């Protein structure tokens, strides 16, 4: 595996981190087998020298008024990369597009990406892909929320198709075994999984994604026994049982400690350790020795989590990317170009 594509200082920091930690798990500390992405692609190829600066400026402007863009973009990027790869197919409109899949209910941030694309098309028409915009904007937004900045290699091209049948995102009540199998199918490992689930340190989810834990865990007619009693009581007040069609589906915070501040903090891992995780997949991190050890390390050391998050986000952004003559550079992120 070649490591020179990852900045030397960044790779060294990650290696140093894992040499100093007590966690004895087998995990990657570099990017995957190299894909044809380039550091500062648009500047290197002199096609849009200030593309990343334009994107960063738009993110900073929006973030001042709407801090929810950080968790929204994180979820949007995950929903894109884990399905067909990081090709911006999740941004495409259509009656049967990915965004219409049940798993993608509540996805947001589309209008924000549209705004950035409009700015870039005015300055560098037909050059910057929607896939790169989504990756760069997400990095900049979560950095403003308290996450580390991390290397985003660019040169991705956009996919031309999007179908809801291709969306295989797992249930948030999935077991840790099934979750790890899913992550591994995307070229990621146990450290990536435990780290990327830490994105749940901020943001909200619909009650429908946890109602099974509250009232009918594994079809037992009882709540999830792993959920702390005080959290169960709190969540039941916010999420009544579903008894009729068309019933409201409220939004709840994934991490009350972050709440409406939408800040990137490591209290998510502390809550997992005290059985206060909102999503079932998060609480499952205690049921495997490797994920439990990583959770304990991240709960004790925020910088450990930040460094691992930087690497895992870079690795996620490399999943099945389109480069060269593959795909296209969309003029509008919602529609493929007309041939």
TrEMBL record:
Record-linked SUPFAM superfamilies: Heme-dependent peroxidases
Q: Which cofactor does it need?
A: heme b; Ca(2+)
Catalysed reactions listed for this entry: 2 a phenolic donor + H2O2 = 2 a phenolic radical donor + 2 H2O
Q: Tell me which PROSITE patterns the record gives.
A: PEROXIDASE_1 (PS00435), PEROXIDASE_4 (PS50873)
Q: Which InterPro entries match?
A: Haem_peroxidase, Haem_peroxidase_sf, Peroxidase_pln, Peroxidases_heam-ligand_BS, Secretory_peroxidase
Protein purpose:
Removal of H(2)O(2), oxidation of toxic reductants, biosynthesis and degradation of lignin, suberization, auxin catabolism, response to environmental stresses such as wounding, pathogen attack and oxidative stress.
Q: In which family does this protein belong, per the annotation? A: Belongs to the peroxidase family. Ascorbate peroxidase subfamily.
The molecule here is called Peroxidase
- Enumerate the Gene Ontology biological process terms: hydrogen peroxide catabolic process; response to oxidative stress
GO MF entry, a single one: lactoperoxidase activity
Q: Which cysteines are joined by disulfide bonds?
A: 48-124, 81-86, 130-333, 207-239
What keywords sit in the KW lines? Answer: Calcium, Disulfide bond, Heme, Hydrogen peroxide, Iron, Metal-binding, Oxidoreductase, Peroxidase, Secreted, Signal
Q: Where does substrate bind?
A: 170
- Any note on cofactor binding? Binds 1 heme b (iron(II)-protoporphyrin IX) group per subunit.
Return the GO cellular component terms, semicolon-separated. extracellular region
The EC code for this enzyme is: 1.11.1.7
- Annotated heme b binding sites: 200
Q: Which residues bind Ca(2+)?
A: 80, 83, 85, 87, 89, 98
